Amino acid sequence: MKQIKLTHILGVLILLAVLAYAFNTPKVSDSVPVSVAPVEAETPVDNRIQDVQDLAKANGFNPSMRIVKAILTASDQYGIDAMQLTAIGIIETGLGKYAVTRKNSNGTHDRGVFQINTVNAPKCVEYNLDSPEGSALCAAKLLSEIKAKRKDYLGVYHSKTHSKKVAYMQKVSQVLASTSDKE
Q1: Is 68:49 a contact under the CB 8 Å cutoff?
Q2: Chain centroid to CA 154: how far?
Q3: How far are the Cα atoms of 34, 40, 47, 77 from residue 37, in angstroms, in the given order?
Q4: By CB neighbour count within 10 A (0-12 exposed, 13-18 middle, 19+ buried), where does 132 fall?
Q5: Which class for 157: exposed (0-12), middle (13-18), buried (19 or more C-beta within 10 A)?
Q6: Which of 5, 63, 83, 93 could form a disulfide bond with 67, CB atoms 3.0-4.6 angstroms apart?
C-alpha cells in the first residue's frame, strides 16, 4: 500500500513539475529577437575547386575548369569524395591529358577521363562517356555502387583481382598524399 502511494505521489510531483515548466517558459512572442548567423556549407565550393586543382598540380597536372566542375558535380550527385575521384582521374588519364580509348588484353576497352570499361558502360547509358561530365558521373556512380557493398571500393573500381586492386589502392593513396607532401 505504501508503494502505491509513493508511486502516486511521485507521478503527481512529476506532472506538477512539467506543468510549472510549461507555464513559466517564455513564449516566442515574449523573447527578444536574436540574429542567427547563416549556416555555412561543409566546404565552400570555391575551396573544393581549389582543393581539386591543388591535388592535380601536386601531381603535375593542370585540369580545365570543365573537368574540375565535372568532378565536383559527380561527387555531389553520388556522394563520392571529390579528392578520391580526382585521384582516380589523375591515375587513369592525368585528368584527361592522356585520355584515349584503350584496348585491354581481355578484349574490353577503357574510355574517357576516368577510363570506363566497356563492361561497365551499360550501367551508365545515360551519360556520354567521351565527355568529362559523363565520364565523371559514370565513375562516381560506379564508385557509389561498389562502396555500398565493399570497403575496398577504390581498388575494386580498377580490378577485382587482389594484387591489382591492392596496387591501385596504393596508387590512389600516393596521389592523395601528394598534397600533404607539398605543404
Answers
A1: yes
A2: 12
A3: 10, 9, 20, 27
A4: buried
A5: buried
A6: 63
Span 145-179, pLDDT tens digits: 999 999 999 999 999 999 999 999 999 999 999 97
- Read off the C-alpha cell for 147: 562502396
**CA dist., res. 109 & res. 104, Å (int):** 6
What CATH topology corresponds to 63-182? Lysozyme (1.10.530)
Q: Which amino acid is at 54?
A: D
Of the listed ranges 21-25, 98-102, 146-150, 173-177, the least confidently predicted one is 21-25
DSSP states along the chain: -HHHHHHHHHHHHHHHHHHHHHHHSPPGGGSPP---PPPPPSS-HHHHHHHHHHHHHHTT----HHHHHHHHHHHHHHT--HHHHHHHHHHHHTTTTT---EE-TTS-EEETTTTEETTTGGGGTTS-TTSHHHHHHHHHHHHHHHHTT-TTHHHHTT-SSHHHHHHHHHHHHHHHHHHHHH-
Amino acid at 56: A
